[in-house]
Structures are given as structure tokens and as C-alpha cells.
Amino acid sequence: MDTLSHTLWGGGLFGYRGHFWIAIIFGAFPDLVSFALLHIINFISNGFVAELPSFASLPAWLFINYSISHSLLVAAGVITLVAFWRKDIAYAMLSWPFHILLDAPFHTAEFFPTKFFWPVSDFFIAGIPWSNPWVWYANVAGLVVLYIMRGRARVHNNSVN
Ligand SMILES: [Zn+2]
Question: How many domains does the chain have?
């Protein structure tokens, strides 16, 4: 899924008990340390280039960072450690594994399939790309429903208090 959708899903699902910004950041985290970092490095070295880099020109570290940040095992390990310290923060960080679960069925085998059990297994789902209109509009509809529900819950809570 695109990074903005991940961010919104993370904030909407796991940011409502406080720590909204942590949920937002960890919703985007797997893409921030991979694609966003690549874009920043490219921008610093080449300035703004309109076309996307070719697949063959992508650096090796991008694939490594993608694998690490898109592994449920890595996310579970880190969040478990945080939970020993702060359960409330660990809860907001659940937007990270949710990002991975959302990527898993919506990436093709050709373009960054999500190896969610990396490094134990390279298994992945050869999925439908998230740019498919059915997937994309379902994603947007899901986000709209989620934020309407959160908005209603907030109005309800405010009227109770
Ligand atoms: Zn991702």
C-alpha cells in the first residue's frame, strides 16, 4: 500500500489511546527506512528527478532495509522489548506489523514481495498490486469508514464526559 494510507491506517487503528504520532510514524516506518530514505539520498545527490529510478539501479541496502522493516518477526521482537518498558507505547507501535500485514497480499512477486517471516523464511504471497483500482478504492473506503467511526466515538466520549 502507499505510505500515506499506511500512515492513516496506523493512526486510525492504534493511535486512539494516546500516542497518535507514534502510531502514525510506525505505520509509515517500514517505508520510511526503505523507499523514503532512497528518495532522500537521491534528492541530495541528484536534486529533484521526475522519473523513478529503474529497478536495476536500486541499491542493495534498499532490499536489506525493506526485508528488515517488513518482517513480522523483527517487528514482534522490537515491540515485545518496548512492551516490557511501556505497554502504551508498544500498543501504538502495532501500526508497524499492521503495515506488513497490509503489504503482504498487495505486492506482486516482481516488485518487493513482502517476506513477512524474514530472515527465517523467504516465503511471500504473490499478491495483487495495491494500485489495482479494486484494492485502491477498497483501501480508501476502509479508511473513510475507520475515521468516521473514530470521529463518532470521540463525539460520543465528549458528550459522556
Ligand atoms: Zn511497505
Answer: 1
SS3 sequence of the chain: CCHHHHHHHHHHHHCECECHHHHHHHHHHHHHHHHHHHHHHHHHHHCCCCCCCCHHHCCHHHHHHHHHHCCHHHHHHHHHHHHHHCHHHHHHCCHHHHHHHHHHHHCCCCCCCCCCCCCCCCCCCCCCCCCCHHHHHHHHHHHHHHHHHHHHHHHHHHHHC
Task: Report the predicted TM-score, pTM, of the whole model to 2 decimal places.
Answer: 0.91
Q: Whole domain around residue 24: which residue ranges?
A: 3-160
Q: Ligand 1 being an ion, which residues bring their Cβ within 5 A of it? A: 30-31, 103
Ligand 1: centre distance to CA 69 (Å): 8
pLDDT tens per residue, range 108-128: 999 899 999 999 999 999 999
